[in-house]
Design a protein that fits this description.
This protein has 192 residues and is an alpha+beta fold. It is 15% helix and 33% strand. The strands form three sheets. Strands 1, 4, 6, 7, 8 and 10 form a six-stranded mixed beta sheet that branches. Strands 9-5-11 form a three-stranded antiparallel beta sheet, with no helix packed on it.
Length: 192
């Protein structure tokens, strides 16, 4: 008898507990508004911040010389990039500052084709791991001192990739002179 009474008390307590929770949930979520009347509804939302994080080097040295027997006249280190975000990102070049003032009588080419007194620098996504590109296929050319919205890479969540500097040099451009090319990279949520 004692077991039966204990069981009945437990069942009654469980029934009251669940019916109270159900009643409270129904009561809080339903409200009658008379015709012609007005009422308020409380809405609660959560803002989840989007943090975009990409790791890349801040400084890259490269050499350019006509003595190389490939179409690409640049020797560049591998430029590793890693997406640390929880969403895919795209990496674009928004602007490139170019200073070739030490290269006397030299002009900039922004399409990879150079005349005798021109230089062109671009970026190319790595196709074979740790292998410097020999040609310009799929290279993206940097424009000098002007705005450009040029996509250079798309990285998935936690994906790693790499770029190389590529370039062309006219036959009459002075070698053994330093010049500066400073692209401004912009990381954004990918539209793909």
């Amino acid at each position: 008898m004692k077991k039966k009474t204990l069981f009945m008390q437990f069942a009654l307590a469980a029934t009251l507990l669940f019916s109270t929770v159900t009643f409270a949930a129904e009561r809080a979520s339903v409200k009658d508004i008379p015709i012609g009347g007005s009422g308020q509804m409380e809405m609660v939302g959560t803002v989840e911040p989007t943090l975009l994080s990409v790791t890349m080097p801040a400084f890259v040295n490269f050499d350019i010389s006509n003595s190389l027997d490939t179409q690409n006249k640049v020797i560049s280190p591998r430029i590793p990039m890693k997406n640390n975000s929880n969403m895919p990102v795209q990496i674009d070049v928004a602007y490139t500052s170019v200073d070739i003032s030490k290269l006397k009588d030299t002009t900039w080419s922004d399409n990879g084709t150079v005349g005798p007194n021109q230089i062109a620098i671009g970026l190319k996504e790595e196709e074979v791991k740790d292998e410097m590109p020999a040609d310009f296929s799929k290279a993206r050319w940097l424009k000098d001192n002007q705005r450009q919205d040029m996509n250079v890479m798309v990285l998935d969540v936690n994906q790693e990739g790499a770029l190389y500097v590529v370039g062309a040099l006219g036959a009459q451009v002075t070698e053994n002179v330093t010049f500066n090319v400073t692209p401004t990279f912009v990381v954004s949520r990918t539209s793909e």
